[in-house]
Structures are given as C-alpha cells and as structure tokens.
Amino acid sequence: MDLRSELLKSIWYGFTALDLEKSGKVSKSQLKVLSHNLCTVLSIPHDPVALEEHFRDDDDGPVSSQGYMPYLNKYILDKVKSCTQTHPKQVDELCWTLTAKKNYKPAKDNKNVLPGKDAFHLWSLFNFLSEDKYPLVMVPDEVEYLLKKICMAMSVELNCVELEDFISQDAVRQNGFTVWSFLEMMNTGKITRGMGQEITSMAIEEVYREIVADVLKEGYLWKKSQLRRNWKERWFTLRPITLDYYTSEDRKERQGSIALDGNCCVEVLSDRDGKRCMFCLKTLSKTYEMSASDTKQRQEWTAAIQTAIRLHTEGKTSLHKDLKLKRREQREQREKRRLAKEEEQQRFQALQEEKERKLAELELLKEAQRQAQALLEQDEMRRRQHHEEMQQALEVQLREAKESRATMQAEMVLKEEEAERQRKRIKELEEMQTSLEEALQQEIKARQDEEVFRYAQTGLLSEEEDKMKALMALQEEQEEYILKTQREKQELRQEMENKSRALEEAQRQLEEVRANRYRVDQDVVAAQRKLRQASTNVKHWNVQMNRLMRPIGPGEKRPSGGGSFSSFQIPSQRDPGLRLRQRSEEPDEECKENVDNSSSAGSGCEGEREERRLSQASNGDMDIP
C-alpha cells in the first residue's frame, strides 16, 4: 500500500465527515477549506487560482466524491512526495479531528472509554489494516490480529469468547468491522479485561508505532562512542531504512542515525571492556559497537536489524505492509481453497448424484434389456411358429397344387382323347353332311372356337406351369431365408414379408389361371353343346327328308288326286337332303332294271333298301321311318 492509498483513506473520512446530510455530496466552500488544510499539512504550495477555478460559485449544487477526485489527484496527491513520515500522521490527525466530531461519541459514564489519543491510534491502525475498498471495513482476521498484538503488548491473553460474540452479530458478519464498531468494542473493556488505562494506552501506542510508524524495535542499548571510545546508554529506534538513537525514550533529542542498506551486516562480539552481550553493526564507512542487557535482547536486536536489512534489499519499506499483503494473500488462498473445496464437494456430490443416476439408468436399462430380451424371445418363438405354420401351409398348398396338376393333366389327356374322337366324328359328319352348309358352317365355327379355347387353355396351362415353377422357386428362396434367420433377423422379416406377398400374388394369379381354365372348360362345353345341337339339326333334316322322299313300293296305290305331290317342290341340287336322296335312289334304279327278270327281285330290292336305311340309322346318320 503506497502513500497515496494511505492518504486517500484518511481523506475519505474527512470528506464523509463534511457530508452532514449523508447524500454523498459536500458543499464547495467546505471542500475549499479541506483542500487548503491538506495543502498546508502536506507542505504543498497553494494554487488559489486553480482552487477558485475548480470550485467556481456559478457551478450548480454541491460536489460528490467523484467530482472532487480529479482536483484531489491533480493538485494535491500528484504533488505529494514520499519524504518525511510526519506528513501522513498530520493528515491523519486533521481527518481524525473532522470525523471524530461527527462519528466518535462514546458514553461519558463509561470508565473504560479510551482517551482521544488512543482512539486516534486505533483509528490509524484500522485504516492501515482495512481493506482497500470503500466504505472502509476490516475483516475479522485482521481485527483478531490487531487485538492479539495489543494484548501481547499488555502481556495478557486475548478474550476470544467476547471477540466471537461480537463477530457473530449480523451487521459485523455481513459487512465486516467498521472503525466505529471497532472503537465501540474497545470501549466496552471486555477485550482488555479491565486493564488500567495507562497500560492500555502504552500497549496501543507501542502497536501503533510498530505497525503504522514502521518501528521494528525500540529500547535502550549501550553504544560505544566513535571519538571518545566510551560507552553511553541510548534509546534506539529501528526502522526498515534507519537505526536512530536518542538521549531518552521521549525521542526529543536525536543523537544520530545509521542508514541501513544491503552493504550492512550485524555480527555478535565477545564480551570485553566490562560489557557483555555485545554485537556490532558494520556499514561501508563505520562499525558501530553496541551492548544489550541480556542475551535475549541481543538476539532480538540482531534479528530485527537483519530483518531491516533484508527488507531494504528486497525494496520493501514496511514490514507490516508486507505482512499485511501476505495475510491478505493467505486469506485469499484460504478463500480460494474453501471455494475450491466447496466446488470439489459440489462436484463430488454432483458426480455422486450422477453416479447414482447412472446406476439407476443402468438398472432401468438392464430391466428394459431383460424385458426386450423376453419380448424378443417371444417374438422369435411366434415368428418361428408362424414360419412353421406358413411352411406347413405352403407344403399343403404345394401338395394340393401337385395333385391338382396331376388331375388336370389326366383331365387334359381325357380331353385330348375326347377331342380326338370329336375330330373323327366331325370328319365323318363333314363327309356325310356336306350338303348342309349352314350346319357345316356352324360346326366349323364351333371347331374354330374350340381350337381357340384349346390354345388359350394350353397357354393358361403353360402359364400355370410357370407359376408353379415360380412358386417352387419362391419356396426354395423361403427355405434359404429360413436358414439365415439367426444371422439376419431384421432383414429376414422384410424379405419374408416380401416373399409372402409374392406368394400371395402367385396364389392369386394361380386362382385367376384356375378361373380362366374353368371359363375355357365352360366354353369347350358350350362348343360341344353347339356341336351336339348341330348334329341334332342334321338328324332332324335327314328325318324330314326321309319322310318327304319316301319311295312308293310295288303294289302300293298312289293317292288319288296327287294333292301331296302337287304341293311338293323338288329341292335343288344344293339341298343336301336331295343329294342324299339321290344316293339312296341309285340302287333302286339297278333294282328296276332287274324287275323284269324276276318277280321276286322287287321284294329283294326293297329289302336291300330297308337294310341300308337300318344300317344308316344305326350309325346315327338318319332315322328309321
């Protein structure tokens, strides 16, 4: 902490003391007086022009601390030089005088009230040990450190119970110690345990000089004169840069000063000249011999001088400033360790919770896995059963298809035989009934239709055979997919579904082929029915022609009038009945040629004609009249 920071802390108290309304602003006239007094105390030359220019009367309203800082930095603090040690003390006394009138009001009936000088020393110690934040507060660790120093100076033990009770208060625990709460605690007398006021004042002054005035050690020592070489008792005051010695402990008459630097060293000497516990301080130019009262004092003095030399070598001007920074660093490190520990605990707790959550999730996953395994096994079992049922159904369908194919082939053989017979009969009918053009055309058309239907039936049969081959191929592929079930479960389901759909499509197409075959069979039956109808028509025409063309036998009388023949028209040569009749009359003419030779020949011819008609009727060509 540099000189500027020390001065700012005291000036802050002076500024807040002038803020009577506690609004954070001070009137310009009061700030002029404060600035003038600071320049006087710090031995800074006054600049009335700048002072009046900065605080003109035409400005509106009072000035806040932020508005006062530019002038304070530029015209006062920038001109302060770290020269004598009296300047900060005089500034502290000035600011204490301003702030004590407003804030320090101890109870008058209290016997333990500290005098003004001790309160000022404690106020200065508080400013020195307080944090560099405004408003100024002191952490409990620093308060405990200061109280331990004071109690150690009084040779008493610190009452930690009372200190803990005071620290446990809400305002102190939340905001820290303010200087007025600290002075109030000291005025209670509980910390000093009712020690005398004089002892308390001496202890406070000793701690003040040690911490604020940077006095490492004070006390009487015997010093050997450089000129007369005699021994004189002097009051020595050790600071980090000098070792001053006075005539007495009131420090009014200084006899000399020894500058300390890195070239100085201290050595322990043996007893001589009637002096004991001797040591010397060596500089570049001189050697100072001194004698302590006892060995403990000599050890303390040599250690303190070595500490001062070390501080000077390290470039440090104050031991307690260095110790304060170290304590602050330790507090920060402790706070960091505490925060780190809390963070570690929170992280550990979070990890523990995460671990528990992961374990719970793992249990849930295990349970879900078990359930999924059970469902998978059930699904696998159902799938296998379904595959077995499908395989059995396919085998049954395949057997039925084979049986149907065999039956159909047998039927086709029968149909072929029947068709062969029909062709022969049709050929005979064509030869016998060439005269019946209309019936013949119908018969030819029926035969053509039958051929078309037969070709369609043959195509359907070949298509059915292809479908059966595809069905067999699908069955083989299905058996291959069944063998790959364990390796490709997921793919097998899709493939089985596709093959099942293909099989269903094949079955549907097979059903359509069967339906088409059935329709072709119906068409063949219809064609056969038409053929039979044509045959029946031919027979009917033959019967009619036989009835119309019946010959007159010998001895029979021709009907009178001849009415039946007069109305009968001789059919043309295109009439197949006439041609049939002519063929039947050709033997009759031969019989007529021989009728004159034998009278019994007439009856023979007639018998021959009757026999021919019977034979034709037996063959189905004509009916017996």
UniProtKB/TrEMBL annotation:
Biased composition (Basic and acidic residues): 576-585
Region (Disordered): 550-625
CDD domains: PH_SWAP-70
Keywords: Coiled coil
InterPro entries attached to this UniProt entry: EF-hand-dom_pair, EF-hand_SWAP70_N, PH-like_dom_sf, PH_domain, PH_SWAP70
UniProt KW Ribonucleoprotein keyword: no
Protein name listed in UniProt: DEF6 guanine nucleotide exchange factor a
Organism: Oncorhynchus kisutch (Coho salmon)
Gene: DEF6
